[in-house]
Amino acid sequence: MNRREYIVAAGVGLAGTVAGCSGQSEAGSGGNGATDDATDSGTTTAESTTTATTEPTNSAYSVSMEPVGEVTFESVPELWVANNGSWADMGIALGLDAPEGVWLPSRYHTQYYDEIPGISVDGSSIQKLWGDSGVGKEQFYEIDADIHVMDPNFLQARGSWEQSDIDEIESQIAPFFGNSIFSTGYEWHDYTYYTLYEAFENLARAFQRTDRFEAFQSLHEEFRTSLDDIVPDSNSDRPEVAIMWAGSDEPTSFSPYLIEDGTSFKQWRDLRVRDAFAKTDVRDFHTDRSKVDFETLLEIDPEYLLLRGQENKTRSEFEDTVVSFLESDQTGSELTAVQNGNVYRGGPLYQGPITNLVLTERAASQVYDVDRELFNRQRVADIVAGDL
């Protein structure tokens, strides 16, 4: 019998022995807020356990991560789905095939892999999990994954699921294993946040590929050290930026993002830019879905405008549409950033270890005029290939 037939025949109680089982803690247990940037080196602050370190094993092993608690795997997962591009990119960094599905493939920007020799992902082959009525359970049955790399609480908060839906998918198919790490702005997320490399280490343990994680960790530490030569020592000499979502080619209002500890801001924290919204009464979009218009921006008048929602455009396409519109708008053209040519794509909501390297290098060129490669592309390709 195949795995699905076995589960049906054996009953719900035996599903965990096939695909794994999880002891899910209550959302909110052990919460300690967002972690400090210093832990982005990959030192894990939340408990993680496993019985192996580098090579896959046929023995059962367990890995812990909030909010799902300790998850036991009877064998190393193969088929998988991911919540977003953060986790999908971690999987690619570990040398896995692309996930079978993500919530929104359009926000998993696989074009960043064009920077890395020998790595490519066909985003069109990844199933879209999000639909008009949320995320449907039938898609999980159709894919029949060995692990669901997503925060189950995000499914309930944003995907209209109930706890009973989570329990059903875990018992009938496979466990959930993830944490919503891209933003700290959600009120329901009152448990541990992981830095990018903490989350990456946990996923490496789940897939029994910690050797690749350790290689990326070393590369990442070297990369961050190299940034010290780029970032000015004085805070006043660092650029002041406004990060906002601009979802159209002719934006007149924007969704503001305050730089916080979520992984989607990692490149900007590592480059130590100043947040133009930090000392204003502008609220973060994730907090109350707030908007700012040109008049508000003129009062703040940041040095740089970093606009999200534009990552599917090339730099020239972005300039020919969004930047051109701002330059021609009567009010938008008065902004200092527009007049000085300092309007850029601000990066995606989701990034993993590979895309973070690419995006941080791009950000350094945008705000510090760095015109050189800051990391070894071939080394990234070698790690992904297992040439450690």
Automatic annotation (TrEMBL):
Per its record, how is this protein called by name?
Answer: Fe/B12 periplasmic-binding domain-containing protein
The reply to whether DNA damage figures as a keyword in the UniProt entry is no
Chain intervals with Low complexity compositional bias? 34-60
Q: Which residues does the UniProt record annotate as the domain Fe/B12 periplasmic-binding? A: 151-346
Chain ranges passing through the membrane:
none
Gene3D superfamilies in the record: Nitrogenase molybdenum iron protein domain (3.40.50.1980)
Q: Which UniProt keywords apply?
A: Signal, Transport
Q: Which SUPFAM superfamilies match?
A: Helical backbone' metal receptor
Annotated region Disordered: the residues are 23-63
Tell me what organism the protein belongs to.
Haloarcula sebkhae
Please give the superkingdom of this protein's source.
Answer: Archaea
Subcellular compartments: Cell envelope
